[in-house]
Amino acid sequence: MKKRRVTLNLDADVVEALESIEGSSISATANAALREAIATAAHRAALLRWLDELDADHGAAAPAERDAVEKLLEELELPSPAARSA
Predict the structure, then answer these.
(1) CB–CB of 29/18 below 8 Å?
(2) Among 3, 15, 74, 81, which residue has the fewest nearby CB atoms (within 10 Å)?
(3) Which residues have C-beta within 8 Å of that of residue 48, sequence separation ≥ 6?
(4) How many angstroms separate the CA atoms of 14 and 20, rounded?
């Protein structure tokens, strides 16, 4: 894959953690982490679009359903749908 040089300013603890990973360069480790973060963000965005489509097609969830989702997300320690609109 073609490489492109960029300059990043990272917190010192992040650099130390990257440097402590044996068998991999900082660039390789950062590339892998960023690829994973990008894939996660894209997946989350696709899910949120799908939920918006469901709301548009079928109406918003009832308060009891929303409460159940909020409880489940808390148990999973994930940001709630309400947090995405903040």
Answers:
(1) yes
(2) 3
(3) 81, 84
(4) 10
The single-letter code of the amino acid at 42 is: A
- Torsion, Cα 51 53 56 57, to 10 degrees, reads -110
| C-beta of residue 51 within 8 angstroms of C-beta of residue 81 | yes
Q: Which residues lie closer than 8 Å to 77 by C-beta, 6 or more apart?
A: none
Q: DSSP labels for the chain?
A: -----------HHHHHHHHHSTTS-HHHHHHHHHHHHHHHHHHHHHHHHHHHHHHHHH-PPPHHHHHHHHHHHHHHT---HHHHT-
